[in-house]
Amino acid sequence: MKAVAVFPGKREVRVIDDAPEPQLQSPTQVKVRTHEVGVCGTDKDIVSFTYGSPPPGLDYLILGHECLGEVIEVGSAVKGVQKGDLVVPRVRRPCPHAICTACRQGHPDYCITGDFTERGIKEAHGFCSEYFVEDVAYVHRVPSELRQVAVLTEPLTIAEKGLRQLGHIQERLPWRPAPGRAVVLGGGPVGLLGMLALIRRGFATTVYSHKRAPNPKEAIAGAVGAPYLSTQDVSAQELVRRVGAADVIYEATGVAKATVDVLGALAPNGVLILTGVPSHGEELTLDGAAVLKQLVLHNQVVSGTVNAAALDFDMALEDLSHFRATWPGAVERLLTGRHPPEAFVDVVNGKVSGGIKNVISFR
């Protein structure tokens, strides 16, 4: 079958036409025909050979961890999914260690050993291939009406988990806080999906991104009622004067300096949610004493979040349906390019189409 693979030892990324087509190996597995695979910053790191590792014994890793596919075969013990269903798969699989309570309780996103596997990222083939096989426990059935946008499910789970954690963090306060002001740092797919999730939860949300308006990101924010400000024109101090201090800052850039710069816009008792992974070698100068003083004196919390659990995928699918009903066309506008597998490297390196979210299409 056709697949997009990275060969770390050869420092090579290419389409292979002779990848073994996977077959069912257990009665609880399903075989899926891939429709679309999203491309993101993690893929860029992998094709730059700064991250990613093949399955044991192999010299290549099939890429892709944001996926929509169609079930074409089911094992004899599969329940809840049938042939013809659209599905999205989860990414991370648990480590084997008994001491890891997180993995043993079905939350490998909180794994403490680091010996988890991640499809398309770490020691397990991904979904950027014509077919893949997965245990039914790790796939989520997609309503047919979400066919055009369901490839966004996995990136949306980043916001779902982050906001779920936010709910737990806010329980520390002696009162139940109402949704307040939120700032989304970054106008990429993760940021804009986080914007939609925050608005749905009642937050007055502002997008604070590098690129100046007008641009497609600003247009989507405007379509759902979110102000859009450029970091090139508005400092963090001016941001506070314009929209008020943020009860929540949802970081979606992976740029350390931009994140530190905006920390001054965080309100007392506020929460900074970190979702981006900074690039290797990014230099940063900061007044550590001032940062720590602010966090302590204002009862603030910095929370990192990675990967997502089953309930976050379920919530993402529910939210996608809500977004489409509330803001017709807004979610679709995030998907600005569909490309063949042969274009993977150009897509991940930003050499084709530009736009907001590009996907690889197998159909």
UniProtKB/TrEMBL annotation:
InterPro entries, per database record: ADH-like_N (IPR013154), Glu_dehyd_C (IPR031640), GroES-like_sf (IPR011032), NAD(P)-bd_dom_sf (IPR036291)
Cofactor(s) the record lists: Zn(2+)
Q: Name one GO molecular function term.
A: metal ion binding
List the keywords (alphabetical).
Answer: Metal-binding, Oxidoreductase, Zinc
Q: Which domain of life is it from?
A: Bacteria
Any idea where the Glucose dehydrogenase C-terminal domain is?
Answer: 148-361
Q: Is Chloroplast one of the keywords UniProt gives this record?
A: no
* Alcohol dehydrogenase-like N-terminal domain location: 27-143
Please name the Pfam families in this protein's record.
Answer: ADH_N, Glu_dehyd_C
Q: What is this protein called?
A: Alcohol dehydrogenase
